[in-house]
Specification:
This protein is an alpha/beta fold and about 400 residues long. It contains eight helices and 15 strands. It folds into two domains: about 180 residues, no CATH class; about 160 residues, no CATH class. An eight-stranded mixed barrel has the order 1-5-6-7-12-13-15-10. The longest helix has 15 residues.
Length: about 400
């Protein structure tokens, strides 16, 4: 991010005074090998999130996959994940670092990597996802039927992919991950599954440490302007505190968002999702398998953030800057042709010129965070799912954790 970028548009980082100058520690090779290995290991102890979709080979290939790959191991499913920034840089530093990375990321998941967006129509590339169950999270989107996708995947993860047979420890669920297949229609007594697949499924659930339920704010959750058109928005608001989701898999987290977000937490626009639904579905599914979601020792949390349009793929600090500039232009009325049409139709006022914001001190404005908030699951009790188009929730009782995407300089 260049120094000429206004402060209120620069991404918030945990090291605000971080220098962009490359640092070198030339004495590192002279350190004892044990100490070097500890440093390698410490550098990898951060959470990563991967979205993996599981597809049935016998079904018609999904429209978002340009070329269905051919299985090489007689599996009934194939796994697809995003390839950007999926491999630790330590694999490319030197042999010692590579050995440390292979030890740390002990799980190897055969999959097909998508490089670029779905719209790019680029061919999938075969490879392996190097994964650490204790630190990393999987978001699993299993296609119909889970008998041929989810259950075999969990079995292979426990018995083949993970040499320690620990199994999955951390899961993430978005929107339709739990409802877009036939998992909710199954139960332990009627499911047409081999006994070992049923056992692995229940063992995986019992072994989980953390489960996050992700929901997003709607298009206007960060900013919208008062208007007299279709939606009759009553006020103008810019909630600069809501984090912006990215496509970067690595995160740094702090147990309490250090930004001055107190006032913004009182008025979070949560319209757009049924935020309680994923947890309800999860509870119902586990109940059908004779499991109680709340008595397994699993730590549940609710994640909330703003999800940009899929065309605005935030992959690094450069794309983050472009996103913030576009958002700032919209707020200040510097519009493209399509935005001008919307403003005219809805009779929207320019946010920065509104009575509430025209004197805003941008030097003291909350800086944008790229990542997401993480609340205790109890915070869902504060979410108002009833009411008009503009639905607000007071989340100030539950000051959130902040998970910041590790944005590379390029991208």
């Amino acid at each position: 991010m260049t120094s000429s970028t206004p402060l209120h548009l620069q991404p918030f980082t945990l090291l605000q005074n971080r220098s962009t100058e490359t640092k070198s520690f030339y004495l590192f090779p002279q350190l004892p090998r044990e100490l070097r290995n500890k440093i390698w290991h410490h550098s990898m102890q951060r959470s990563r999130i991967f979205h993996m979709s599981l597809h049935d080979l016998d079904k018609t290939p999904p429209k978002d996959i340009p070329d269905i790959p051919t299985s090489t191991d007689n599996q009934r499913f194939f796994a697809v994940t995003e390839g950007q920034q999926s491999m630790s840089k330590l694999f490319r530093v030197n042999q010692e670092a590579r050995v440390a990375a292979l030890f740390f990321y002990r799980v190897r998941i055969p999959c097909w990597f998508r490089i670029g967006s779905v719209d790019d129509k680029l061919p999938l590339k075969p490879g392996q996802l190097y994964f650490n169950p204790e630190h990393d999270f999987l978001r699993l989107t299993a296609k119909w039927s889970v008998k041929h996708t989810l259950f075999p995947f969990l079995y292979l993860f426990n018995t083949v992919y993970d040499p320690s047979h620990t199994g999955l420890r951390n899961l993430i669920f978005y929107g339709n991950d739990l409802s877009g297949n036939d998992l909710q229609l199954m139960d332990c007594s009627t499911a047409d599954l081999d006994a070992h697949l049923k056992e692995v499924f229940t063992d995986t659930i019992k072994n989980l440490h953390q489960v996050f339920f992700f929901t997003n704010g709607c298009l206007h959750s960060r900013q919208f302007a008062q208007g007299g058109g279709q939606f009759l928005l009553a006020i103008t608001q810019y909630n600069r505190s809501i984090p912006i989701e990215t496509r970067v898999p690595s995160f740094d987290s702090v147990p309490r968002d250090p930004r001055a977000i107190g006032e913004d937490l009182k008025d979070v626009m949560t319209h757009g999702d049924d935020h309680r639904r994923p947890f309800r579905l999860w509870t119902n599914i586990l109940g059908k398998w004779g499991l109680s979601a709340t008595s397994l020792g699993i730590e549940y949390k609710w994640s909330f953030g703003f999800k940009p349009d899929d065309r605005l793929r935030i992959l690094g600090r450069e794309t983050a800057r472009r996103f913030m500039q576009k958002e700032d232009n919209y707020w200040n009325g510097t519009l493209d042709a399509e935005q001008e049409r919307v403003y005219a139709e809805q009779k929207l006022e320019v946010g920065a010129q509104s009575e509430k914001y025209k004197g805003e001190d941008l030097e003291r404005a909350v800086r944008p965070a790229f990542g997401f908030w993480l609340f205790p699951i109890e915070a869902l009790d504060s979410v108002d799912d009833e009411g008009q188009y503009t639905r607000y929730s007071d989340l100030s009782k539950y000051w959130p954790e902040l998970w910041l995407s590790s944005l590379p300089e390029s991208g």
